[in-house]
Write a structure and sequence with these properties.
Shape: globular
Structural class: alpha/beta
Oligomer: single chain
Number of strands: 8
Largest sheet: 6 strands, parallel
Order of helices and strands: EHEHEHEHHEEEEHHHHHHHHH
Distance between the termini: 37 Å
Length: 401
């Protein structure tokens, strides 16, 4: 029997090692001698990158991305790059900095404004020309943005986050140095790590899952299961940082090729309307979406092959291959609940969400591109229950919910 036909996209070159940042000057010089560094977070990593580039005789300009990128941020970053005559863009930091760099690189060669190319809320024009050369350097192990072909951008006037998406957007080089994450605050380690785990789980259970993404997702879940809490507890744990960096990279590759699901369907409108970090949304909703999907799939058929995937997730999260399918499925939910407790993930109510926001957010979530890859369609009532549980921070999820 032949395998399902599939296509697979990835960054042309991945450089992964402790201390890899030292190679930035040599790598960037291959694209030109005028670089713009787009960064967020603390100044120390940006200062190190600037010194390395200056030592390699590159001229440098910087653009600091504050918070998650908006249309205005992208347009301002683009003006910085154009006025400087940038030949290479460097995205250094978390997903916000990397997505900003990605969008700026794409618009630098294609022209126009961010809103011209955004899905759902924008004009949806196609990115036709290859993006300007750019290098992605993640400092948090989370979004996997270094390996994706979309940049997530907020449109505040539309109360929604959406993507610029194109095969022309991926970085020329993803430079991943796990040591850069050692100064990441514990709460950022927690939320970004849960984002990576969520992306691996959602792409593994997505309607777009395929053999290449399955292989990476399974290994990535295994790495995150044994390393996320350790990295949160001790930021200087080099092995844990390395394994989480690899899990995050693989999560970016799997989501690009397989799609995601209902957790990320909610993340688009929630992140645009409330001051809640993306990874916190993912962590707060993941157990409840797992429970809702499993319940709906079982209602369709107790023998649905998708249930085997949830059992595989449970076995990976518990590192116990001998438990029964039913026990493993229950473990998938229980382990994600345990992670949110251990990592001290706050309820979404802490960011201003309340009962009155549930129905509007459910309607907006339905329009998100990720929702169409959820393994089974969930009713508005079920989606409302998922969000209500995330708002309240309920940790007693059961499969029958």
């Amino acid at each position: 029997m032949s395998l399902t036909a599939f296509e697979f996209f990835s960054v042309p070159r991945i450089v992964f090692s402790r201390g890899a940042l030292a190679r930035l000057g040599q790598l960037a010089a291959g694209f030109g001698n005028r670089a713009v560094i787009v960064y967020n977070g603390g100044e120390s990593n940006a200062e190190r990158a600037q010194k390395i580039l200056l030592d390699s005789k590159l001229a440098i300009s910087t653009f600091r991305q504050k918070g998650e990128p908006t249309v205005n941020d992208i347009d301002r970053g683009l003006e910085t790059a154009r006025s400087f005559g940038a030949q290479v863009i460097i995205g250094l930091g978390g997903g916000s900095a990397i997505d900003t760099a990605k969008a700026v690189a794409g618009l630098l060669t294609n022209g126009g404004s961010a809103l011209d190319y955004m899905e759902v809320v924008g004009k949806g024009q196609k990115i036709i020309k290859p993006a300007a050369p750019w290098i992605a350097i993640p400092t948090t192990a989370g979004t996997g943005a270094e390996a994706t072909r979309n940049a997530v951008i907020g449109a505040s006037e539309r109360k929604f986050k959406a993507s610029i998406r194109s095969e022309q957007l991926p970085a020329r080089i993803a430079l991943i140095d796990p040591e850069l994450g050692m100064s990441t605050p514990p709460q950022v380690t927690a939320s970004s790590g849960m984002d990576a785990l969520c992306q691996l789980i959602e792409s593994y259970t997505s309607l777009g899952a395929q053999p290449m993404t399955d292989a990476l997702a399974v290994k990535g879940i295994e790495l995150a299961a044994r390393s996320l809490v350790r990295a949160h507890r001790d930021g200087a744990d080099a092995i844990a940082r390395e394994e989480m960096s690899l899990a995050a990279l693989w999560s970016g590759i799997t989501l690009t090729n397989a799609g995601l699901g209902a957790v990320h369907g909610f993340a688009a409108p929630l992140g645009a309307n409330f001051p809640v970090p993306h990874g916190t949304i993912c962590a707060a909703l993941l157990p409840h979406v797992l429970a809702a999907n499993i319940s709906a799939i079982r209602a369709r058929s107790e023998n649905d092959p998708l249930l085997q995937r949830y059992a595989a997730i449970g076995r990976l999260l518990t590192d116990d291959k001998k438990i029964s399918e039913s026990e493993a499925i229950d473990s998938a939910i229980r382990c994600t609940i345990d992670l949110t407790i251990q990592l001290q993930i706050p309820p979404l109510s802490r960011f201003g969400l309340s009962e009155r926001d549930i129905q509007p957010m459910v309607q907006l979530a339905r329009a998100a591109s990720s929702m169409r890859y959820n393994p089974i369609e969930l009713s508005n009532e079920v989606l409302a229950g998922v969000l209500r549980a995330g708002i309240k921070g309920e940790m007693n999820t059961r499969m029958e919910n």
